[in-house]
């Protein structure tokens, strides 16, 4: 069993890589260690969701199921941080629980109640997408963040035209449009929009190939300048 070379007190501590390997090979103890280490991530995800009538403890249980699935499915060699990968898996699990709770606790005679329960589920979906979009925007260079926020009203202001954005940045209308195009192209990259793509079901090989082709065409148009 692999361990870190250093010792803490009299205990030798398994390396993070060893824990993933052992957990995915069926080691229950390693799974438990990773579940405990990342339980705070479950709470963080659940606190940001619209749960409707789903009790908080039920949401936590669903989130922990998602965390367990993430632990078994995570591949450290892909270069994605576990928290990034697990966030989407946990969100999907909680989302499914909200929908299932809404469906199974509704009687046929209460269509109004059913509609009300479906509404929180839709609100949950919209909020999840909004949070993931904000996280993607936050990974852009600051100037491009300003362009996207201004264009779509993400900074608590009315959406702005490219002319207005140009005035705000001290550039032409055309240049503002180019910056907007660059921002969207960067946001389409899987490394930036991983969580958002997970929510929208856009993580297939075909989706990534399309992004790659779009990026290549964009770079060619710009003369190879990224």
Note down, in words, how this protein is organized.
The chain is mostly helical and 226 residues long. The protein is built from 11 helices and 2 strands; from the N terminus they run ββααααααααααα. A two-stranded antiparallel sheet has the order 1-2. The chain is globular and about 60 Å long. The N and C termini lie far apart (44 Å). 23% of the residues are buried.
Secondary structure elements and their pairing?
Layout: E1 7-8, E2 11-12, H1 16-24, H2 28-37, H3 39-47, H4 56-73, H5 82-104, H6 111-138, H7 142-152, H8 162-169, H9 173-188, H10 190-200, H11 205-221
Antiparallel strand pairs: 1-2
Helix pairs in contact: 1-2, 3-4, 3-5, 4-5, 5-6, 5-10, 6-10, 7-9, 8-9
Question: How would you briefly describe this protein structure?
Answer:
This protein is mainly α. The chain is built from eleven helices and two strands; from the N terminus they run E-E-H-H-H-H-H-H-H-H-H-H-H. Strand 1 and strand 2 (11-12) form a beta hairpin.
